[in-house]
User: Fold this.
Amino acid sequence: LLPSSASLSTSLQCPSLMVLLNPSQFEQIILNLVINAGLALSDNGGSIRIRTYANPGIADADASLTLEVEDTGEGMSDEVMEQIFRPFFSTRKHAGGTGLGLATVATVVAQSGGSISVSSALHEGSTFKVQWPLADSLRRAQADERVANGPLKGLRILVVDDQPDIVRILRRLLKREHCEVITATSVKHGKDRMRTSGPFDVILSDVVLDDGQGTDLYAFAQAEQFAGHFVFMSGFGGTTIADVIGTTDYYFLRKPFVPRDVRKVLAQATGRS
Assistant:
């Protein structure tokens, strides 16, 4: 699938280390990242490198395995990097791009307990980095987290997001935590839920919705004196939220997230950490 002018090399270390990952998921991640790297190369060609290596971490529980896919392509601006994991965002729609490749990667990485990041500069190429905790370290970290964070059982949570996959993932995760979950898909829908199904312990809302902003929900809740801690979700930095709502009385969950990120921020928001 790569252009004939592209060169592909590998540097694969630590073949004996184990992570909890379905092989087909790994193949899907590799395929999408390498195809994306190939599309970023110029017509004159370029190089792509796949690397794996271990990060020992400060303590054993921090040890992880890293996968990198690096290209010497056109690179990305900061504005583009902020949006590349968002479904249907594509800089190549004129060439048939769907904007689902990197969104799929982010979802699969999150489902497998990993994290993904990207570094890039215009005309200097890009590097996508995926990290997974080692299998034994992951099990220990999950056990420690359950003890540290405490149960979320009984929380009433309103989830507001216009992306069905995100809503489905959060509902499934929070149900496993024995939370009561109500969902909405827009600002208007969220306001209706607050009026008819409240009160909520937490309102977990995307920042950018089809019919407005999550900050509109915050302002509505304050005006109507609805109780509930606010957690905003976004693939962006979230640095302007405080300027919009005039306070730092909220919590922030960066997309893409993994289950432990969700549990941690909810525990902090509700004082159960």
Notes: The two ends are 47 Å apart (CA to CA). The first helix runs from residue 23 to 40.
